[in-house]
Amino acid sequence: MRSFPAAVERLTEQFNKLPGVGFKSAQRMAFHVLGMNDAQAEAFAQAILDAKHTVKCCEKCQNLTDMEVCSICSDPGRDQNVICVVTEPRDVAAMERAREYKGLYHVLHGVISPINHVGPDDIRVKELLGRLSDGTVTEIIMATNPDTEGEATAMYISRLIRPLGVKVTRLAYGIPVGSQLEYADEVTLMRALEGRREI
After folding, report:
1. What is the pTM for the complete model shown?
2. Could you tell me if 93 and 155 lie in one domain?
3. What is the pLDDT of residues 134-156, one digit of tens each?
């Protein structure tokens, strides 16, 4: 026997499909939507539909945009010689929050993962290689996650790019700011030592 009307259960199920949203959180979201007045609920639904219909991938970097070319790629103040390769669009947002990087991006929309049946043709590697054909780019910064799939993807792409004469670098790893050495694992300490620099 159902506790709530079928429409409420369907709404809860849809929220529950979102990443990181458990059943109880999904149920709270469903009840919150039910508490909205009609105008608020319609604005919420319209925002979802607008995003689905207007947001697409930038034809250059594959980041999300509502134009043919995103605002980062079309910014003449960005360094056109450097491309930072990231896994997902949210990684661009993370890099931009630091306000230090002034180059361009390339979003792969995934990583190579044989376990999940994701190969090089399933991510945006071909588009990245196409951007290197005119000789403008001098450095590729691999900023994929430091996990097994991220490392494998970075190594695969670097092997493809090296013959083109483009320098390939990897983000440094190390001890997070504000943490203590005694809590760092062996791999993190090893990477921190390898990536040390003069001060």
Report:
1. 0.82
2. yes
3. 889 999 999 998 888 999 999 99
